[in-house]
Amino acid sequence: MKLNIKEIPFSRFGSYFCVSKELDTNEVYIRDVHGGDDAPSKLFKLDLLQDGVEQEFDIAATETCLRFFLVKDTEKYAEINIPEEDELHIESNGVEVRLQASKVKYDTLHEYKDGMYEYHIYPKELKLMISKLSGEMSVDAPWNVIGNDYIDIRMSNGHFVIESYRTVFKPKEYASFQAGKEKVEHLYQEWVENNTEKNEVYQASIDRAAYITWSSIVHPDGLLKNYAMYMSKLWMYNIWSWDNCFNALHIGAKYPELSYSQLKIFMDAQDESGVYPDFVNDKFVSYNCIKPPVFAYAYEKLMEVNDYFKEESRLREVYESTKKVMLYFDLYRTYEGRLPHYKHGNDSGWDNSSLFHSGMPVEAPDLTSFLIRTYDILTKFAGLLGEEEEAKQFTGKADTLFSLLMERLHDEDGFFGRVGKDAKKIDTRSSLILRLPVLIGYRLEKQIMDQLVDDLVENFETKYGFATEMPSSPLYKENGYWLGPIWAPVTYLFIDSLKSFGYGEVGERIKEKYLNLTLVGGMAENFDPHSGKGLVDTSFTWTSSVFLSLIESK
Predict the structure, then answer these.
(1) Whether the Cβ atoms of residue 243 and residue 489 lie closer than 8 Å to each other
(2) pLDDT at 553
(3) pLDDT confidence of residue 482
C-alpha cells in the first residue's frame, strides 16, 4: 500500500513512535503518543539538507518503511523504520537529515558519550537516546541556565537510532537497517494474513484498515498493563470505553488474548462506584464522562467467534464487572420513578446530538435500550455460570426497564427523550440516536419495529448509509460530528440489529453502503453521508475494525 502520512501516520505495532505530515503546513514530524492526545506529541521537525540548505523532498511510504527523497535527485534519500517498539532508525544516503526539536522550557539535551546524546522531555516524562551507529552526526544545542535554547541535530550518510525510555538507558546491540526492515515486514505480513482475506473490490480498504489497526497498537507502559489499540495515532490517541469494544470484536477470532486485553483495560480501571472510565492512556484515566454499557454486547459476540471467551473464569470476570456497571446506573444515574440519564452528550458518545440541545440531564431511549440488552445478556451469562437466582433478578430488571421505557419515552410517533429536573418531553426528534431501540427489537412489538425501520429508511438513509441527523432537519450540519455524518459503530449496531430481528434486506443494503463508503472516504472518524468524504481524524481504528468485521461476514 502507498501510505499518505498526512492521512495515516507511519508507525508499527507496539510503538509509541510515529511520523506524520501536518495537514496545514506540510511539515513532517517525528512524534510520540505517550500521554494521550492532551500531551504534546511532536518530537522533531524533519527536513533534508544539502550543503546546509533545505531541499524540496517527496515521500514514498509503505506499511513498514518510510523514505524521503530529493525531488531533484531521487537517488539521494533518507529512510525511517521502527524495527523495535521503542527504537526509531534513520538511514541517510547522500543527504543531511535535520531534526529540530519541538522543545519547551525545561527540555534538555546533553552529550552522553561520543556519538550519543540523551534528551530529557519534561512534559512527556520521557527520555530519548540519539545514537550514531555510522556516518556523521552534529548537534547544535546551546545551553541557557535551565535548558537548551534550541536543539538542532544533523545526520548524514549513515545509520542512526532514536530510542525511548522512562528512566535509565540500557546499552544494547542494534540490528542493521536492512535486518530491521525485514523484521517489520515479516511481522506486518503475519498480521495481514491472520486478519484479512483478499477481495478484489475492497482490497484498497482492506489494506488501509489492516495497517491502521496494526499500527495503532502500543505496548504496555505506565497505566497500560497490556497491549492496547489506540483509536488513532494521528489526533485521537487515547482508548475510549466503547470504541475499544468494536476493536476487540474484530480481532477476537484470531487474536483472542489481544482482544480480551482491550476489555481488561477498562475492567482493571473500574471505579469503586462501578463505572468504567471514559478513556485511558499510559498516563491518565478520565472518569469525567461515561459511555453506555456495550461491553456485555461485545463479549456475547466474541463468544460466538472463539471458545477462548467461553472459558469460565474469563466469563466470570466480565460478568462480575458488568454487574457493577449496572449497579452504577441504578444507584447514581437514576432518579426515583424515572429512567437512567445522561449528564452530558459525551456520556452517550453522541457528543453534540440534537437530543442534547435542550439541556441536561437527559433520559434517553438508547441508554435504556443498552441497559435492557445488557440485563438480558447477563441473564444468559448467569445461566452459564450456574447463577439461577441472579438470572431471575436480571430478567426482572430488564422487564421493569422495558415497561418504563415504553411508558415514559414512547408514543404514537416513536421514541423521544426527557430533559431536566421536571423530565420535560423533548420535542426534537431528528437524531438517529432515538432509533437505537432497534437494539432490543426482540422485545418490541412488530408494529413498533416496522415503524422504526420505515422511519430509518425514509428519513435517515442516504447514499452511504444512515445519517446521524435527518438531512431534512434544520439542525443538520455538514461536517457536524453527530449532526449528520455517518459513524462506524452506530452503523454496526443498526446492521446487526436489523439483520438479527427480521429486517435483513435493509441491514444488508446498509452494510453494502458502508463497505462502499470506505472506498471513497477511507477509514476516517466519520463521513459525509452524501459525498462519502472522510471527516475529522482520517486514521481511525474503530472505523477500520467495523469495516473488517463486516466484510468478513459477507
Answers:
(1) yes
(2) 80
(3) 98
Calpha distance 57→47 (Å, rounded): 8
Among 278, 281, 276, residue whose Cα is nearest residue 322: 276
Average pLDDT estimate for 441-460:
98
Q: Are 523 and 247 in contact (CB under 8 A)?
A: no
Cα distance between residue 227 and residue 191, in whole Å: 15
Using CA atoms, how far residue 174 sits from 153, 181, 206, 251, in Å, is 21, 13, 33, 31
The alpha carbon of 457 is separated from its chain's Cα centroid by a whole number of angstroms, namely 29
**117 Cβ partners below 8 Å, 6+ apart?**
109, 110, 111, 129, 130, 139, 153
CATH architecture of 17-187: Distorted Sandwich (2.70)
Q: What Å distances lie between residue 94 and 51, 70, 74, 77, 136, CA to CA?
A: 11, 10, 10, 6, 12
519 — phi, psi (to 5°)?
-70, -20
Residue where the block lists cell 546546509: 52
Burial class (CB in 10 A: 0-12, 13-18, 19+), 2: exposed
Q: Which amino acid is present at 349?
A: G
Q: Domain residues of the chain, as ranges?
A: 17-187, 452-554
Cell numbers describing residue 474: 434544520
How many other C-beta atoms lie within 10 A of the C-beta of residue 198?
8
Strand partners, 91: 79, 159
Whether residue 38 has pLDDT greater than 90: no
Instruction: In whole angstroms, give the CA distance from residue 226 to residue 219.
Output: 7
Instruction: At 217, list the grid cell.
Output: 497498537
Upstream peptide bond of 361 is cis (omega within 30 degrees of 0): yes
All 3 cell numbers of residue 305? 467467534
Dihedral (Cα; 176, 178, 180, 181), 10-degree rounding: 170
For a pLDDT cut of 90, what percent of the chain falls above it?
A: 96
**Cell digits of residue 195:** 486478519
Q: How many CA atoms, within 13 angstroms, populate the side-chain half-sphere of residue 275? A: 19
Amino acid, single-letter form, for residue 482 = W
The whole-angstrom separation of Cα 363 and Cα 409 is: 8
The string of DSSP letters for 354-385 reads GGGTT-S-EE-HHHHHHHHHHHHHHHHHHHHT
The x, y and z cell numbers of residue 35, run together, are: 500521554
- Alpha-carbon gap, residue 324 to 326, rounded angstroms: 5
Average pLDDT value for residue range 41-58: 96
Quickly count: other Cβ atoms within 10 Å of residue 338's Cβ: 13
Partnered with residue 228 across adjacent β-strands are 218
pTM above 0.70, yes or no: yes
